[in-house]
Amino acid sequence: MSELLIKDGRVIDPANKIDTVSDVLIREGKIAEIGSVKASGEMKTIDAKDKYVVPGLIDLHVHFREPGDEGKETIASGSHAAVAGGFTSVACMPNTQPTIDNEATVEYVYRQAAEANLANVYATGAITKGRDGEELAEMGQMVRGGVVAFTDDGTGVQDSGVMLKAFQYASMFDKVIMQHCQDDAIAGNGCMNSGYQATVLGLPGMSPLAEELMIARDLLLVQQTKARYHVQHLSTKKAAQIIREAKQQGIAVTTEVSPHHLLLTEDCCVGYDTNYKMNPPLRRQEDVDAMRQAVADGTIDCLATDHAPHLSSEKELEFFNAPPGILGLECALGLYVKALIDTKTIDWPRMIAMMTHIPADILSIDKGTLAIGADADVTIIDPTSPWQVDVEKFYSKSRNCPFHGWDLTARATHTIVGGEIKFQLG
Amino acid sequence: MKKKSSSKDFVWRRKHLLGLKGMSADELIHLFNTAEGFKEISQRSIKKAPALRGKVVGNLFFEDSTRTRTSFALAVSRLSADIVEFTAKASSLSKGETLRDTARNLEAMGIDMVVVRHKAGGAANLLSQCIDACVINAGDGYHEHPTQGLLDIFTIRELRQDIKGLKVAIVGDIAHSRVARSNIWALHTLGAEVFLVGPPTLMPSAVSQLPVTVCHDFDSIIGQMDVLNMLRVQFERIGSPVIPSLLEYSRLFALTEKRMEKAKSDVIVMHPGPMNRGLEIEGTVADGPNSTVLRQVSNGLAVRMAVLFLVNQASKLPADERIDS
Ligand SMILES: [Zn+2]
Ligand SMILES: [Zn+2]
């Protein structure tokens, strides 16, 4: 009988409203006991004194690039990056080559994930075939294959009629519809936030309106159906306000925010460094402040990295031509602490909730809790050890990360998935 | 004329010319004074100076621009340097080779200076970060076209004592204009008052944060202006959502003979070229007594000689005395 005992940590399990110094006993891959547990002879023990013991972290927005772009990331390398960052479960976006828009490709993702045998990797499926915004993908077939959500991430569904049908159709399956909110007619060929820096740098700007308009539209559409709607990578002040008001009206909407939209602004683009090119683009300081405020008041439900690996050769292109997106998994925890805990925006239990049971609820997966009998996905965090982000040490295959060289404090020391230690800080 | 005074002991420190934003009045004036010297050379019977003998300059044009490319090529030869022409069609530039690859190749060829024109904003900055050679921006996206801005202001300086206090209108498609941006920064630094004239659809998103006055009614301000700089309108924007029709654009913003009646009699009429006669400027105005279009072209040569000369001087300075960005 395999047993693992985590001794003397501060156990933070927001799903069960637990925040206390305690031991956690894992038996046969499940949480067996929380309380004072005596170590017996055979038992493997981890000393978690002065550390936090939390449900395995969940990131519902990552790009693992497989199938098709294995040079950037694979499900195996991405999973390795995930557990190194303290994440036990991730949801992969379907904008791969080919698109994850059918049952066979979904099954392929799960096969690769099983082979990697590191994190719990969940597939999401495209809303429309080939993510072209025209015909609905075979949602029912993909649900059979195990998708946990639908999204055309990388692009938003432009046609309002198609989007309404998608909400109606998806409501059959109780799977959330996630949207990369971007009205292309407004966004044009914008490659950074429209505003002062875009004007000075002579780069085409993307107006915040592109994001806000699609959110507002979708909120009207989703009310006509029984679907659940999740706004991906929220980035503007007004978008946060629109969602805040929608929640007050009881509309079924949730949203997420990335580390970069909590920490960086458009001013970072001044040197044309393509590691600051993201989509949605980095906004202004008042948007960053608004994101933190929206985290504080619960408008933003969960934290998600939008981990987006790209080849160095692509990121070395001119700013306009380089692909958007940055790595997130291996430094996200420390960045969230910097953005949200150090600034006293929220406390640790709330932050852990936003990284565990809340994203689990959005995806309707049975994760994110240390309840007795639950899968033993556990992350142990050293909340105070200083460390410096070094992209050369990342397990990800890519290196596109603007946080290289940042000094952070918190990081995962052990990542346990199904009772097995998949990562241990060495 | 007080133009020549301040710059005797001035040391030019910029190894690259990437843009005019952030350039000081002293730097601009030193550059203009240097250009004046080169303009005198152009008027001699032997037009060559040996300043850059033995140097190799790459003329790297990812976008077509016969005018700017030729002007730089002539400036290089006047300074006795060698020029190597790269154009998008003639070399591997169009075959997916990145700017960085190109930079490495140029470096391997032993090129000392690169003149670069590219459709992406920031291309010259990127090139300057991955090459040892001096980089001169000959226009990058909507970002900057510093030598055009310099030659425009050099031309105004020739005709007026001082830039300070002059009212300069830049008219047309400001949003997509690198010429406008370079002019705005340097004119502002030198104390001119800049007016941007055009429809709101052709203004940059953060125009209110620029040191300018925005005006959509050309007729209401034309009488106060000392300089009218008429930008080229891209034909492909006509009939797109930004300009309803050529006729409407001309009625509202073109510099016609009729509109010239409202202007000061000695107003300076400029155009960076190539002109669309009958679109943004009427032919008779372009060829009229107030037009400096041809003077701009000849001044462009002197200004580009000055730029090549100065960045080469700066490249010989020790690294801690140089400005490399
Ligand atoms: Zn997205
Ligand atoms: Zn994404």
Strand order of the largest sheet of chain B: 7-6-5-8-9
CATH architecture of the largest domain in chain B: 3-Layer(aba) Sandwich
Number of domains of chain A: 2
Q: Determine the CATH superfamily of the largest domain in chain A.
A: Metal-dependent hydrolases
Name of the CATH homologous superfamily of the largest domain in chain B: Aspartate/ornithine carbamoyltransferase
Mean of the pLDDT scores of chain B?
A: 92
How many β-strand stretches of chain A? 20
Percent strand of chain A equals 15-25%
Low-confidence stretches of chain B: 1-5
H/E element sequence of chain B: HEHEHEHEHEHEEHEHHEHH
CATH class of the largest domain in chain B: Alpha Beta
Strand content of chain B: 5-15%
Kindly report the greatest chain-chain contact and the residue count on each side.
A-B, 21 and 24 residues
Helix proportion of chain A: 25-40%
Largest sheet of chain A: 8 strands, mixed
User: Using only CA atoms, what is the Rg of chain B?
Assistant: 19 Å
Amino-to-carboxy terminus distance of chain A: 27 Å
* Shape designation of chain B: globular
The level 1 CATH classification of the largest domain in chain A is: Alpha Beta
Rg of chain A: 21 Å
Description of the molecule:
The complex is a heterodimer of chains A (426) and B (325). Chain A is an alpha/beta fold and 426 residues long. Chain A has 2 domains: 3-52 and 375-424, Urease, subunit C, domain 1 (Roll), CATH 2.30.40; 56-363, TIM Barrel, CATH 3.20.20. Chain A is built from 14 helices and 20 strands. In chain A, a hairpin with a 2-residue loop joins strand 2 (18-27) and strand 3. In chain A, helix 4 packs across helix 7 (208-222). The model of chain A has no long low-confidence stretch (mean pLDDT 97). In chain B, helix 1 (25-42) crosses helix 11. Chain B has helices at 25-42, 66-78, 99-108, 123-129, 146-159, 178-189, 218-221, 246-253, 257-260, 283-286, 293-315; strands at residues 56-61, 82-87, 113-118, 134-140, 167-171, 193-197, 213-215, 227-230, 268-270. In chain B, the strands form 2 sheets. A 5-stranded parallel beta sheet of chain B has the order 7-6-5-8-9, covered by helices on one side. Chain B folds into 2 domains: 25-144 and 299-320, Rossmann fold; 146-297, Aspartate/ornithine carbamoyltransferase (Rossmann fold). Chain B is an alpha/beta fold and 325 residues long. The relative contact order of chain B is 0.16. Chain B has 11 helices and 9 strands. Residues 61, 63, 93, 153, 306, 308 of chain A line the site of one zinc ion (ZN).
